[in-house]
Structures are given as C-alpha cells and as structure tokens.
Write a structure and sequence with these properties.
heterotetramer; A mainly alpha (262); B mainly alpha (181); C alpha/beta (274); D alpha/beta (278); A: 262 residues; mainly alpha; two-stranded antiparallel ribbon; 13 helices; disordered N terminus; C: 274 residues; alpha/beta; Rossmann fold; six-stranded mixed beta sheet; four-stranded antiparallel beta sheet; 11 helices; 39% helix
Chain lengths: 262, 181, 274, 278
C-alpha cells in the first residue's frame, strides 16, 4: 500500500533529488529528445554518455535504475523480433512464410530496442528522484501558460491533487471488495466471454460506487470549508528557480542542440 | 436533468483518475485480467459520460499518465498512444451525451460509448501510424491490436459501463438523466 | 448562536417527496455543547447540513451566528463562522500533505499567503498535531485524521463547530481522543453541536435535543433527557447503562436516591443507598 | 478441532523492510464455539481472520480447517468457500446487483442447489435479518437506507448457511434496536451449531454473546480465555487501550462478585442492595 503512494521514489541525498521539480521536468523533456534523436554512432555515444553521467549524479543503485527494464526483457525481445521479421525489404537473409529476416530489419529492431532502453532508464531517473506530489505541482506551474487559452489550470491542479490523495484509500477499498466477493464465492474463470465480462461486475460496481460516494462526501466537506471555485483562492507562493537549476537547464539545452548536429 | 455542480464533476473526475491507477492494480491478482480487459478504459468512458467532454478529456490524459508514473504501467513506450485513445474516449463520450437524447438513459449511454470507442480507436490508430510509430504501423496491426485482441475487453466495457451508469443513478450518486414525471 | 424556527425539509425520491424534518424549533446558546441525538435516518444530519447551507432551506427560518441560512449572498461568510467535521475521516481531505490540508480553508477565503503559515501552525498546535506538517493524511490513525479535520476547520476560527457523527467510524480509544478535543474546544469558547446516535457521547453535552422521525421529541439538559425512560423509549434508544440500572432496580422494588447519568454517579447513588 | 492455527506468521514487505503483522499465533477453535476477538485498530485482528478465511497467505505456519491445510496446493478452496462465511466491515459497500433477491442469491450462484432451494434459502436469510421477503425482493439494494443495506449484505452471507461465520465489526454504527436484533440472531445461529468469530470494539456486546475472548496486541495473541477470565485482567487491557464491559467494570468497583453481562450484574447488585436493606 505504502509503496504505491510514493511511486518508485527512492530516498537519497543527491543533486538530482534536491533539484527543483520544474527544472527537472524541463531537463527531462530535453534529454528525452536527446535519447530519441540518436541515430548514428556519435549520437548514440552522446546519449549514452549523458545518461551515464546523470545516473552517476543520482546516486541511485543499478537495480533501482533498471527495475522496470528487468521486468521487460520478454517485451524487448518481442519488439526486436517484430521489427526484425516484419521489415519489408528485397534483400532477405532468410525467409519463411510471412517472416522475412533482413539486415535492415535487424538494424531497425536494434534501434527500437536501444531507444526503449534509453527512454526507460531516463524516465526511471525522473520517477526515482521525484515524488508524485512534487511532479504534479511542477506540472501545474509548467501548465500555467495555458491559461492564455482559457484553460482552467487551477481546476486541473485541484483534480490531480485530489486524485493523488484518493489513491491509497481506494486501493485499500478495492482490495477489501475483491476479498469480500471472493469470500462470497465470486469466480472469474468462465470460458464464455459474456459470462466472464459479467463476472467482473461484482468487483467493478462496488469499487465505483465507493469512489463516487467519496467524491460526493468530499464535495460537501470542501463546500463547508468555503470552497467556491479554484480561481478565487490565495495564490500559490512563487519560488524562483535556483542558480544550479538554471545551470542544469543550460547544460541540457546545449546537449540537446549538439544532438541535432550529430 | 438537474446538472451537477462543477465542483462535484471535478471531484468525480478526480476519483476516476484515481481509479485509472487503482483498477489495474486491483485486477493484477486475477490471472490475465489486467492485460486483456484494459480496466483503465472504464473510468475514462464513465467520466466523459457523467462529467462532460472536458473532464472526460482530462481523465483520459491524466489517468494513464499518473498510473505510469506511480506503477510503471503502462510503460512509457505505450503511454502517448494510450493517452490519446483514452482522452478521445472521454471527450467523445461527453460530447455524444450532450446530443443523443433517446428518452432512455441507458440507450444514450450505449450509443455514446460505442461511438466514443470507435472514434478513440481510429484516432489512436491514426496517431500511431502518423506520429508515434510512423511507417511501422499497418492497417492489419491496427485491426489486430485495437479490435481482435481487445474483444474480451470490449465486451466487458459494453457490459460494465451501462451497468455502472444504472447503479449510480439508482444509488442517487448522479442525478437522473430523465427524472420520473 | 443557532436559532431554528419551524424548519422543515423533504428530499425528492423516485416515489415522491420524503419528509425528513418536521417543524424543528431549537435555540442553542453561545458556548454551549449540544448533542442532537436520534436513530439513523431521523433527520439529524439533514439539520446539520442546513446549518451550514449545504442544503437549501425549504421551510421555516434558521439563523446561525446571526446569518440567515436562506440568504444565498451570505453563505460564504456563514461557512467561515460555522465549521463542520464529517463522519468519514478519509473523505474530507483534499491534499496529500497535512499543512496544505489545513491551509485549504484559509486559501478559500483569500487570506494573504504570508499569514497562512502561522494560522496552520496554530491550528495544528490546538489539536496537538505539532510536527505533522509534512506527513500524508492517509498515514495517520483514525483519531489523528479527525483531529486534522478539526484543525482544518479551526484554521477559519469559527464560532460554531458541528460534528456530524464524527466519531462513528473510530475505535473507542480514538473516540475518546476526539471527544476530549470537543470538550477542550468548548472550554475555549466555541459552540459545539454534536450529531450522534451514541447515548454515551450525549452524556457529555450540556443539553440534548432528542429527535425521532424528523421531529424534536424533547430538548433539555442531558440529565432531563437521557434519564427519562419514556422519552428515550419513544426515540427507540437505550438509556446510558447507569440510568438503566436505576430503572431495573426500581422494577425490583429498590429505589436508589437519584437517577444516575454516569458510572461515577451510580457508584455514589449506591453508596448513599447503603 | 475445527480450526487450528499453527505457528502462524504474516509479514508485509514495506519499502524493502519487512514488518510483522502477526507473529507465532497458535490457536485451536472447536466446533460450535462463539469467539470474540478484540484489539486496537491495526493490531492484526483483521489479518488473522482473513488468514483463517484463506484470503491471505501466511508467510509461515499453517491454517488447518477440519484438519486440512487450506494453503496446501492440493486443497480445493471452493470447499472452504462453502463452509465459511465472512461478513466484512461495512458489508453494505459490496452490494451491486439490480435486486435484493439477486444480490443475496449471489453466494449460491455456483452451488448446485435447485431454483426452489435457492429461493428458500434467500427467503430464510432475509427473514432472519428482519425483512418482509415479498416486499423487499425486487427492491434495488442500492436505494435502501444504510441500516437496511447492511442487513441485506449480511443476509447475502447467511444464505450460504456457512458452518463457520466470521464477522468483522458487524454492529459498528447500527442503531440500538438493530444491534440487539442482530445479536439475538447470532445467538440463534450459534445455538443451531454455527461456529462464530466476531471482531468487535464493543465490550458489552462481546460479553453478551461470546463465550471465549481472544485479545490481539501488536500482532501477538495477548490473552485467550473465557470472557470472565479475560475481563478480569482489566489493567492489562487498559494498557492496550481496550475497554471491559460496563458490568465487569462496575462489579469490580462495587466489590461485587465478578460478572461480565449486564443482566448478571443487575442480579448481583439487587442481591447486595436487597440484602442490605433487610
């Protein structure tokens, strides 16, 4: 239960952990471009060196960084084979039915797998060093410019914050409901598709009813405390970015720019 | 139909987003339920039907995003097309509910959700073919991954969402679409 | 502090209107602790919600701290002076951080940012949750959650605090924690209204309003109401244990010198009998 | 022995650290016992009964029901489901069917009973819970009042006529009348031979119904014995922030013979006062 609320966050005392979440999110997007732009040997080199450097800065263990990766070995193999075997080309090395193995296909497969691995490690870096609350707050600040298009950013921030705070209780409730229905003899293994679909109703319906009941009660509690719209509230305090955050942003932009020329 | 306050719709949207994270985890312990049945589609559709297109859109975008961030599922690689698909579900379901008025709330729900599910799949397929996996994504892949592989899931969504709408009306958690005279 | 004149309310259901309040007339003084006691579904929660203008007024007149609850323009101001704590501690939190949770009320009233820190600190201190500022509400115990909810209300410095079955989902230990908090708040000058169906809790109140089927059956001191067998039977409630002992002994021909309300009084009564 | 727990341990994995929920629980429960379980919130009592119901898997140790290890790979859990009924806390939140009848009959869905037998059982369960069968059967369970929902949900467990009935805080939040009626029904089921385990904070209700009390504290079995024995350790219980029943407390203060039920206490008091008066 606890684990889910902190997500994959791992507590450590590193530069990356201390970095402002807004700057971190922007850097993440810049580096994401760096990873996805890798096509040649040099550009792969740059992407890999950058990634290794950031990993070292994070002080995270190797297992934490590759945690999602290890669960996905089969997925990676499937992706590789899909690309390698279905790449249509004239120069086939080996052919069997609809399967065509070619040099280009293998290269293509390797590209895709490499990109997935790079992006996964990078996103692990973000989620392991930033709590979900920090991330949502950062997202809210970064979405601010959207106000120009009359998008109610405060409302979105409120919705996200409430959603986060409801996850632990709903998770517990879902678990209880699942157990309760199993104790009442619910089964989920029917072969008939419609029967199988129906067999999930005892699970889904109560979970939704509980969730909607919670929303209903919370709306009363919020109104009772004087809520009258997300816009009419004390504004959030403005915290300026630190020098180190700006420096990090600068470095990431440079790497990103270099990648476009490689 | 008495409309729900914006606060209430916002909070329902919030719990639907939370359910996008919770449902796949709750289904996790039941063999092959999580992957085949795509439980995350249900809150996105329902949010659109109940709270309107804009909240539906928000739920479809934020649900998978939050889930990916908290649980690592769906994986980053699948995230963008999934967000597009669910966001279109929520948006179209909400829009359809504003136009379809057959005098029977369940008929409205079923029509709206079928249209939403179709449009969502078309848009997600197009997005995949044109942006996310340009060149690698074919018509055959679209049909197999969005329809054939999803048959159990589609059936469950078609059963669950109207049943949910009916139960929520009965429990007075959402206002009746067509109040009894 | 609270004046109700012939307040009535009916909900719309599939089978037509269902009346839950009938001509409720009640007057609550400033600084009092009042228990509104009755079975589930007797209309006591509806009354609480009317006090906070969470439901629209239908019949009669209800003023809370000088504000007419039917005056839509004053609803916002009314809710600042009349706080409310709800039954389910999990369903009243907006934020995943304790200090933001307490700040939610003041932020709604556009209290300047620089003042909010001090308000949050003071409110958390009042409910003895100092040092919990950065915790997540869901990691707290049931009693702590309800105290946090009280802190969220106190941050608006209300005159009246309504507890709508605020102890119903807690274990006995946490319940005592919250009840002690209510007593402390009353001592600090707040008017406390507790909505409950637990007779043992109503014993703590200065006065008790006994409700049944949407009507006020009786309104008087805790002793007048809770030790009155006829009234309690009419409300389909059991008297406190001590009072039940008095009546059961009476039926056996033993008359204690007084009808006790608490266990201490029962001990005293038995001592005096000897 | 109907239920046997041997060296039962349960651990949760919490951010890499192991935390003990239950430690070395040994317990023997005979057929037809009525057992009360007490403990503070979070002490592990709910986990304990969920282990008995096969809803959690122990980290180590065994749960034997009628001599069979329910966590063994060869054990068919459907046998356990038919034997054991479990009323969760706030069971009203599990209702989902369109009518009360279908919801109560859900527990019998996979039983091989005929339609008639199912109907008879559903009728029996609903009438036991104080409903008029004909009036309630086609109602939507979601549109009922809170107390009625609770009763329908409990009927949904009773309809399976379990040999062992586990109840987690079944009376929390009920009105005095509904509570008394429910406790009476439990006594009736017990008299018919059902083994009952009830978790409750309500010491008076436990004193009224249960014959044996088990107190769980910090994941360990702290006390186990008849209600009289357990309530005689008032200091130990108050250290665990647990109450004893009104009768037990008062009879100690008045130096009366120790009694745990209200009726016995009034009798003792009457004898004392009546004797003094003469």
């Amino acid at each position: 239960m606890n684990r889910s609320m902190t997500g994959q966050y791992v507590q450590k005392d590193s530069v990356l952990h201390k970095m402002d979440a807004r700057a971190k999110l922007l850097c993440f997007i810049l580096l994401l471009v760096v990873m996805l732009k890798a096509k040649t040997v040099f550009s792969y080199g740059l992407a890999a060196v950058t990634l290794v450097a950031v990993c070292a800065l994070s002080k995270l263990s190797f297992s934490a960084l590759t945690s999602t990766l290890s669960r996905m070995t089969t997925f990676l193999i499937v992706i590789f084979l899909m690309n390698a075997l279905f790449f249509s080309t004239q120069e086939a090395i080996w052919k069997w039915g609809i399967f065509t193995l070619s040099r280009e296909g293998i290269v293509q497969g390797l590209h895709v797998v490499a990109h997935v691995v790079l992006v996964l490690v990078l996103s692990n870096l973000l989620t392991c060093t930033t709590t979900p609350i920090e991330l949502t707050t950062a997202l809210e600040v970064l979405l601010k410019p959207l106000k120009v298009f009359r998008i109610p950013v405060e409302m979105i921030a409120l919705v996200l914050s409430v959603a986060l705070s409801f996850i632990p209780t709903l998770l517990q409730e879902a678990d209880t409901i699942r157990k309760a229905q199993i104790a009442r003899g619910a089964r989920f293994e029917s072969r008939n598709l419609i029967e199988k679909a129906r067999s999930f109703l005892p699970l889904i319906l109560p979970i939704f009813l509980c969730a909607f009941r919670r929303a209903d009660e919370l709306s009363l509690a919020m109104e009772a405390r004087g809520y009258r719209g997300a816009a009419k509230r004390t504004k959030k305090a403005k915290i300026p970015l630190k020098k180190s955050d700006l420096l990090a942003l600068g470095i990431c932009s440079c790497i990103c720019a270099v990648q476009f020329f490689l | 139909m008495t409309k729900m306050s914006i606060l209430k719709r916002a909070l329902i949207c919030a719990v639907c987003i939370a359910l996008c994270v919770v449902l796949p985890m709750a289904f996790h312990s039941i063999p092959d339920a999580g992957s085949i049945l795509s439980p995350m589609h249900i809150p996105a559709l329902l949010c659109g039907l109940v709270c309107g297109p804009w909240f539906g859109l928000l739920c479809g975008l934020a649900g998978p995003l939050l889930s990916s961030q908290l649980t690592g599922m769906p994986m980053m690689a699948y995230l963008p097309p999934m967000m597009v698909e669910l966001a279109v579900y929520g948006l179209v379901a909400g829009l359809m509910m504003q136009f379809v008025r057959t005098k029977k709330s369940l008929a409205d729900v079923v029509i709206s959700m079928i249209v939403a599910m179709l449009v969502g799949r078309i848009v997600a397929g197009a997005a995949k073919a044109l942006i996310f996996a340009a060149g690698e994504f074919t018509m055959a892949m679209w049909i197999s991954s969005y329809f054939v592989a999803m048959i159990p899931g589609i059936i469950m969504h078609l059963v669950a969402v109207p049943a949910l709408y009916y139960a929520l009306e009965k429990a007075h958690l959402i206002p009746r679409r067509y109040p009894k005279a | 502090m609270i004046q109700a004149q012939n307040v009535g309310f009916a909900y719309e259901t599939d089978e037509g209107l269902r009346r839950v309040l009938h001509e409720v007339t009640l007057s609550i003084q400033s600084g009092e602790m009042i228990a509104v006691l009755g079975q589930n579904g007797c209309g006591k929660s509806t009354f609480a919600r009317l006090c906070n203008a969470l439901l629209p007024m239908q019949e009669g007149k209800l003023t809370v701290a000088g504000f007419d609850t039917s005056d839509k323009k004053m609803t916002f101001e009314l809710r600042r002076v009349c706080g409310m704590v709800f039954q389910n501690p999990d369903n009243q939190f907006v934020s995943s951080v304790v200090q933001e949770e307490v700040a939610f009320g003041p932020e709604n009233y556009e209290v300047p940012r620089q003042d909010i820190g001090a308000i949050v600190k003071a409110a958390l201190h009042q409910v003895a949750l100092d040092g919990f500022e950065h915790r997540a509400p869901y990691t707290l115990s049931g009693g702590q959650k309800q105290r946090l909810a009280i802190a969220g209300v106190l941050a608006l410095s209300p005159k009246v605090i309504i507890f709508d079955e605020a102890t119903a989902m807690l274990d006995p230990m946490c319940r005592r924690e919250v009840l002690a908090m209510m007593k402390k708040l009353q001592a600090q000058g707040h008017t406390i209204v507790m909505i409950t169906h637990y007779v043992e809790e109503a014993v703590l109140a200065d006065r008790v309003a006994l409700m049944q089927d949407g009507k006020i059956l009786a309104f008087g001191t805790a002793r007048e109401i809770l030790c009155d067998k006829e009234k309690m039977d009419a409300a389909k409630l059991l008297m406190p244990h001590a009072a039940r002992v008095y009546y059961d002994l009476l039926a056996e021909g033993i008359t204690l010198p007084m009808c006790p309300l608490t266990e201490e009084e029962l001990l005293e009564a038995i001592c005096r009998f000897n | 022995m109907q239920i046997q727990l041997k060296q039962l341990c349960l651990q949760y994995d919490c951010e890499g650290r192991k935390s003990d929920v239950l430690q070395d629980i040994d317990l023997q429960i005979g057929r037809g016992e009525f057992i009360g379980i007490m403990g503070r919130t979070g002490c592990g009592k709910t986990s304990l009964v969920q282990l008995m119901a096969g809803l959690l898997t122990p980290t180590s140790g065994q749960v034997l029901i009628d001599g069979e290890d329910i966590n063994s790979r060869h054990y068919d859990k459907t046998i356990l489901r038919g034997k054991l009924g479990y009323v969760f806390q706030y069971p009203e939140y599990q209702l989902f069917e369109t009518t009360v009848y279908r919801d109560v009959a859900f527990a019998l869905k996979y039983s091989k009973l005929s339609k008639k037998e199912v109907e008879a059982r559903v009728r029996q369960a609903l009438e036991d819970m104080g409903f008029d069968f004909a009036a309630i059967r086609e109602e939507s369970p979601l549109a009922l009042s809170g107390g009625e929902k609770r009763r329908v949900a409990i009927a949904g467990v009773l309809a399976a006529q379990p040999e062992i009935l586990i109840l987690d805080e079944p009376i929390a939040g009920l009105d005095p009348q509904a509570r008394d009626a429910f406790l009476k029904l439990l006594k009736k089921l017990h008299a018919q031979g059902t083994t009952i385990l009830m978790i409750s904070h309500n010491a008076d209700a436990l004193a009224d119904c249960a014959h044996r009390l088990i107190v769980i504290n910090d994941g360990k079995k702290a006390l186990d014995g008849t209600v009289e024995e357990v309530f005689s350790h008032e200091e130990v219980l108050s250290q665990m922030h647990l109450d004893v029943s009104f009768a037990s407390r008062m009879s100690k203060k008045l130096a009366l013979p120790h009694s745990v039920t209200y009726e016995a206490f009034v009798q003792n008091l009457k004898a004392k006062l009546g004797g003094d008066a003469q």
